[in-house]
Design goal:
The chain is an alpha/beta fold and about 130 residues long. The protein contains two helices and five strands; from the N terminus they run βββαβαβ. A five-stranded mixed beta sheet has the order 3-2-1-4-5.
């Protein structure tokens, strides 16, 4: 093999990861103060997993910190960024905020996507 300049091929494929710039964490504007004195000041959002007989479902919920009521939600079979976009769109549609509202999340990959950031810039919601 050396004489013919042949080499053994490994059975592994090369990884095809596409590395993007790391997402910047949004500043924590709430500082763990989750008691609000008036509505439409701040809300929290998160995603939970629900096991069903046909597989997993994912539920994204937006909760107003003043009333502790669910103001937006979305359920999908995939954990794509659209689940959080649909939930916050419902919160905007139902709440119709007139001033900027802080959104507090765990800043997972769905909450740090470019679409999420553009959506927050176009609406009255600001990420925390």
């Amino acid at each position: 093999m050396r004489e013919n300049k042949n080499a053994a091929l490994r059975g592994y494929k090369s990884h095809r990861f596409h590395y993007h710039k790391p997402a910047k964490a949004a500043p924590n504007r709430l500082s763990q103060q989750f008691a609000m004195q008036m509505p439409d000041v701040a809300c929290v959002t998160d995603i939970t997993y629900i096991r069903t007989f046909q597989g997993w479902l994912y539920l994204a919920v937006v909760l107003d910190l003043f009333s502790r009521k669910v103001i937006g939600w979305s359920m999908k079979s995939t954990l794509a960024k659209e689940i959080v976009l649909d939930a916050i769109l419902m919160a905007v549609w139902r709440g119709k905020p007139t001033k900027p509202v802080i959104i507090h999340s765990d800043q997972g990959s769905q909450y740090s996507s470019d679409e999420w950031k553009r959506f927050c810039e176009r609406t009255s919601y600001r990420q925390a």
